[in-house]
Amino acid sequence: MSKIDDFDGYTPTWCPGCGDWGIGIAIKSALIKSNLTPSKAMIIFGIGCSGNMNDFLNAYAMHSLHGRSLPNAIGAKIAQHSATVLVIVGDGDCYGEGGNHFIHACRGNHDMTVVVHDNGVYGLTTGQVAPTADKGYKSKSTPSGIIEVPINPLALAISQGATFVAQGFAGDINHATTLIQRAMEHKGFSLVNILQPCVTFNKVNTYQYYLSRVYKLGEDHSPTDKRAALEKAMEAEIEKFPLGVLYQKSRPVFTDSIPQLASTTLLQKSRFTRIDELLADFV
Known about the structure:
Blueprint: H1 19-33, E1 41-45, H2 53-56, E2 60-63, H3 69-79, E3 84-90, H4 91-97, H5 99-108, E4 112-118, E5 121-122, E6 128-129, H6 153-160, E7 164-169, H7 173-185, E8 189-195, H8 207-211, E9 214-216, H9 226-233, E10 241-248, H10 275-280
Parallel strand pairs: 1-2, 1-3, 3-4, 4-8, 7-8, 9-10
Antiparallel strand pairs: 5-6, 7-10
Helix pairs in contact: 1-7, 4-5, 5-6, 6-9
């Protein structure tokens, strides 16, 4: 069985107290609990403070372009659909630049787990406002306050076809670990949105702010009830943040509908070398 040290890369350069530290530990712990080794996990990183984990986490990994982690992950999954694919991104990266990819990955039900560091700012580039920030939030890029209303990632994922939607908190590592592990065990598109304070640039959504507003879903919540899940997701509008699995459903994943992958993975198929036959079509 793997040890947490097996997944260690370079020493992280995150700010002391940053929620990324807790999320990093939760991800490593979930990989261990899922009996995975660094050579058994394919991890795609976005850009930003969360994306810097590409250097801090030892695994088969790829540092993608800004907003392009999901299409890279989809390509990896289609090539080797038997592999575990994990995507680690920030809220700006995934819901901002990558928002269009996020919607279509949900509706395609691509079998992967997406862990989003949701801190409301672009922390790596000194705290500009991100899509999940509340209307009126002031930052270097919006000194008079943001005009737009925030994206609701949980409601968006549920409504667009994701089959596992959960929310965690960087201040509760054990709970976040369990959510990530359950997400990886689920066959389908899994979102784990993790509320993560940025101690350097976001002075509003602090640990104290979340500790007084988060709560864990009880046994009375049925994750198979889509309407109930959407109602829980919408509680963000009144600054209540449910933690746990809001929604879970079983339906065929994208690669199950590709007949060429029925017998083996694309990676294991023999290579097509009859290039002359292809070129003949253009003569």
